[in-house]
From TrEMBL:
Keyword Metal-binding recorded: yes
Organism (species): Pseudoduganella ginsengisoli
Protein name: Heme A synthase
InterPro entries on file: COX15/CtaA_fam (IPR003780), COX15/CtaA_HemeA_synthase (IPR050450)
An example Gene Ontology molecular-function term: metal ion binding
Disulfide bond among keywords: yes
Top-level taxonomic group: Bacteria
Length: 382
């Protein structure tokens, strides 16, 4: 398994090494962002095809390194239950997901090791080891939840946490990559000027933070919908079951520690509980669209934020469309995967917007303070 993970990591590592970009450390950071984004989307495909238990043990498949070696065991399980959790297709989907995760883990470890070596030797800007070390431990925690997802047989709270940690890792890597961009611009002599007055930038910064918070809540709600298979608890829009406020069971629906499809007492989960989970996620989406949309509107004409603002607005529209289409078209796999892809895009772009708003706001405040300090002696002399 370790050799497979290393082989998966070698291709992107070689592409970074042979690239024309002089700042290969920054290139490595953004390569990790790209691969983590891919991992999240493929993880959604794994979950939506019910391939999470395609290999019912961890980290291997029936104790072996790949489904080729475990073909006899997989074939026997599939023969007993052809539509069950273990099939040849599902085993390969699950193991490819694990191989990709291990490859990214190797790249994160390489990034952390490089940071520590360069910082100890030269104290070079951009190689401060704190953030790469945090990224390594975040990835290790994500791997642990990946293992528990399998060993605890798709416990909803574990699967939901696994998804949220994946999005958190994507946000952390994007923040780190954005910081590397600024370090690179500073070292190459590129001057970054504030594109708006400090009060405007400060307002956008806090709007971006608030948008990030509500998106994180919506991600948690979406993960809870997905892991409890509550997507089709409401099969119409905007009403649910012919009512604006349907009959719902919040107590059982949002009880965290329980088996899949069961209440905490071990009884079958009532349909009203799934309705509650779906209904809350659907209606909280309105909060996300309103706040993130307003944030994009405020950042629309700010230099350095315009493209991100437009991208966020487009993704919000696409998320609404794919969410509604998932209901009306009876949960097609392709649209469900696109909905998860849109969520990851929203996390990526909001993280970049948060970093740029913070950086521009800090730069504007620093410039304003420097101007005031420079003007103070002149006033004193007068």
């Amino acid at each position: 398994m370790l050799i497979t993970g290393l082989l998966v990591a070698l291709l992107p590592a070689a592409m970074v090494w042979m690239s024309s970009d002089e700042n290969k450390y920054r290139k490595l950071a953004w390569t990790c962002v790209f691969l983590t984004f891919d991992l999240i989307v493929f993880g959604a495909f794994t979950r939506l095809t019910d391939s999470g238990l395609g290999c019912p043990d961890w980290p291997g498949c029936y104790g072996l390194a790949n489904p080729f070696l475990a073909h006899a065991e997989i074939a026997a399980a599939e023969a007993l239950q052809p539509t069950g959790p273990v099939t040849v297709f599902k085993a390969w989907v699950e193991m490819i997901h694990r191989y990709l995760a291990m490859g990214i883990g190797m790249l994160v470890m390489a990034m952390m090791a490089t940071a520590w070596v360069q910082w100890r030797k030269h104290k070079r800007p951009g190689f401060e080891p704190g953030m790469p070390t945090v990224l390594f431990f975040a990835f290790a925690l994500q791997g642990a939840f990946g293992a528990w997802t399998v060993t605890l047989k798709l416990q909803p709270v574990i699967v939901s946490t696994h998804l949220l940690l994946g999005m958190t890792l994507l946000a952390l890597l994007t923040w780190f990559g954005s910081r590397q961009n600024i370090v690179h611009d500073t070292l190459t002599g590129k001057k970054i000027r504030p594109a708006a007055p400090p009060p405007v930038l400060r307002a956008i910064r806090w709007l971006a933070v608030a948008s990030g918070v509500v998106v994180a809540v919506q991600l948690a709600l979406g993960a809870w919908v997905s892991t409890n298979y509550a997507t089709l608890a409401c099969t119409e829009f905007p009403k649910c079951g012919g009512q604006w406020v349907p009959l719902m069971d919040f107590e059982h629906g949002f009880h965290l520690w329980r088996e899949l499809g069961k209440t905490a007492a071990g009884h079958y989960l009532p349909f009203e509980a799934l309705t509650a989970v779906h209904w809350v996620h659907r209606n909280f989406a309105l909060v996300v669209v309103a706040l993130a949309g307003y944030t994009a509107y405020r950042a629309w004409n700010i230099v350095g934020m315009t493209k991100l603002a437009r991208g966020i607005a487009m993704v919000l529209g696409a998320q609404a469309a794919t969410g509604i289409a998932t209901i009306y078209l009876n949960f097609p796999l392709a649209i469900a995967v696109l909905h998860n892809l849109g969520a990851a895009l929203l996390v990526l772009m909001l993280t970049m917007l948060n970093y740029r708003a913070k950086h521009q706001s800090d730069t504007a405040l620093h410039s304003e303070s420097s101007t005031l300090r420079a003007a103070a002696p002149s006033r004193h002399q007068q």
